[in-house]
Design goal:
about 475 residues; alpha+beta; D-Amino Acid Oxidase, Chain A, domain 2; globular; binds flavin-adenine dinucleotide; FAD-dep_OxRdtase; NAD(P)/FAD-dependent oxidoreductase
């Protein structure tokens, strides 16, 4: 029996697992997908928000500011790139100047450091590609950018390095309450645990309904994006927001940690049952272009390399729900974690651990806990001398598989064999970026498939793009001598 079963391996479930791995506990993460970070965590704005906009009394406001301050240490320990590029909320009309003032006041109440209002000229000096009509901006130096899925994968890997188990393809279908424990069922397996932590993203209400009548519901709210090629790098230097509205933070233009440019998201409420609708649509993408033009008219959309969408977990309560259930003892909900959930993840993990420790005060520490994740080799960033040395040690680092991103075979093999390693084309792309460049995997995809089959003793027809049914090859079109190889 496990002490704790965490449902969901997004950034929240993974961060919670790593935090609880500091203690001598038997923990399992149950994830319905075939990889870590396949829910909302893989499709969002990737901003570590400074935290000036949520109501000062809200849990999300407090978690955001605390989580933001923890990012340097967490990302250093987990070897995840993170940059504090700062953000600007721009006022385009005189009436919006008041909004900047109220965001500034709210930010001060929450303790956000370094906020200041810049004049239109100061904004133009920092951001020459923004429209010159901008009147002023709220500058937040602590805002940052990160790769959200990389953070989740790193959290999960480090949790596993510290003894946590991960069960992929385990969709929780039912939970039975027994004396002193929960029986958690997938379609073909049952896991028993003393405590359940529900971090199931947009499905957190459905998971809670398995043990109680939910006092909250989660509505999916979709946001769509354009992602521009690295050739657009430098279009903006900060994360640029318009003034916020009832629908949220608005359509931003932002650099990504890998040097691309992101434009979006819109905000579209879907029906409560549309929790898989991560498709993009022509009308909403057109709306994003038109709306972003109010901030930046010179966005080079011809450099667009992909579009994508993510689903916000919009809770009926309006705020993060992070608490032991009132109805069901030892069942902890971590639900409604919409934006700024990524920014808040380190603080949410600490809060969940402290709820667990309040319920179980005699929990011992894990004496072997190691917070440091083994660093990844980033071949493209190495000096010529370091590259030569690396190739001499392991020639697989000398074989470049992805020419857009300059990713070597050695890096891909390492990404497969680490804890929480990649098993699909997109899983490898999220870990080491083959396929994330301009050709979007057109050249390197088949090579990555070959490496996956070799390293995992699979057939080519077993390899999937992403989810369970996303087969790439179905068989040979022409029969030949090497038929058995597929
Ligand atoms: C458009 C958009 C923009 C955003 N921008 C930002 C931003 O810039 N900054 C920021 O701080 N936040 C942002 N967010 C919010 C942030 O992305 C989320 O708060 C965060 O990713 C939530 O992580 P999670 O682990 O709770 O959810 P998820 O990543 O969705 O993880 C939940 C996991 O649970 C699994 N699961 C569900 N049901 C079951 C089941 N029955 N059994 C087993 N597993 C199950 C899912 O497969 C999934 O992997 C944005 C969100 C969106 C949609």
């Amino acid at each position: 029996m496990y002490d704790i079963a965490i449902i969901g391996a997004g950034v929240i479930g993974s961060a919670v697992a790593r935090e609880l791995s500091r203690y001598a506990l038997k923990i399992v993460i149950l994830e319905r997908g075939n990889d870590v970070a396949v829910g909302t965590t893989k499709a969002n704005s990737a901003i570590v928000h400074a935290g000036y906009d949520a109501p000062a009394t809200s849990l999300k406001g407090k978690m955001n500011v605390k989580g933001n301050a923890m990012y340097d240490e967490v990302c250093q320990a987990l070897d995840v790139p993170f940059k504090r590029v700062g953000s600007l909320v721009v006022a385009q009309h005189d009436e919006e100047l008041e909004t900047l003032e109220s965001l500034l006041e709210n930010g001060k109440l929450l303790g956000v450091p370094g906020l200041e209002i810049l004049s239109g000229d100061a904004v133009a000096a920092r951001e020459p590609n923004l429209n010159q009509s901008i009147k002023a901006a709220l500058y937040a130096p602590t805002a940052g950018i990160v790769e959200p899925w990389e953070l989740a994968i790193a959290y999960c890997e480090n949790a596993m390095d510290n003894g946590v188990s991960l069960k992929l393809n385990f969709e929780v279908k039912g939970i039975d309450r027994k004396a002193g424990c929960f029986e958690i069922h997938s379609k073909d397996e049952t896991v028993t645990a003393s405590t359940v932590i529900n971090a199931a993203g947009v499905y957190a209400d459905a998971v809670y309904n398995m043990v109680a009548d939910s006092h909250f519901t989660i509505k999916p709210r979709r946001g769509q994006y354009y992602l521009l090629d690295k050739e657009a790098n430098g279009l903006v230097n900060h994360v640029i927001f318009p003034c916020p509205s009832k629908l949220g933070k608005g359509i931003l233009v932002a650099p990504t940690i890998d040097g691309n440019v992101l434009i979006g998201p819109d905000s579209q409420d879907l029906t409560p049952f549309d929790k898989e609708a991560t498709n993009t649509t022509g009308d909403r993408l057109q709306y994003i272009r038109e709306t972003a033009a109010a901030i930046c008219e010179v966005v080079p959309y011809k450099l667009n390399i992909t579009t994508f969408a993510g689903l916000r977990a919009e809770p009926s309560t309006g705020d993060f729900i992070i608490e032991e259930s009132m109805e069901v003892k030892n069942f902890i909900n971590v639900a409604g974690i919409k934006s700024p959930g990524l920014s808040s993840a380190p603080a949410i993990a600490e809060r969940v651990a402290s709820i667990y420790l309040d319920i179980n005060p005699n929990t011992a520490e894990n004496p072997a806990f190691n917070p440091i994740r083994r660093p990844r080799v980033k071949f493209a960033d190495m000096t010529i001398e370091a590259k030569q040395e690396m190739i001499e040690k392991d020639p697989r680092y000398g074989r470049i598989i992805c020419r857009c991103e300059m990713i070597s075979e050695g890096e891909i093999i390492d990404a497969i064999h680490r804890n929480a390693g990649g098993r699909t084309l997109n899983g490898i792309k999220r870990r080491v970026r083959p396929g994330a460049g301009r050709c979007q995997g057109g050249f390197c995809g088949p090579r990555v498939m070959e490496i996956l089959t070799r390293e995992l003793s699979l057939k080519m027809t077993d390899i999937k793009q992403e989810g369970l049914d996303s087969y790439i090859l179905t068989g040979k079109t022409k029969r030949g001598d090497e038929d058995d190889a597929i």
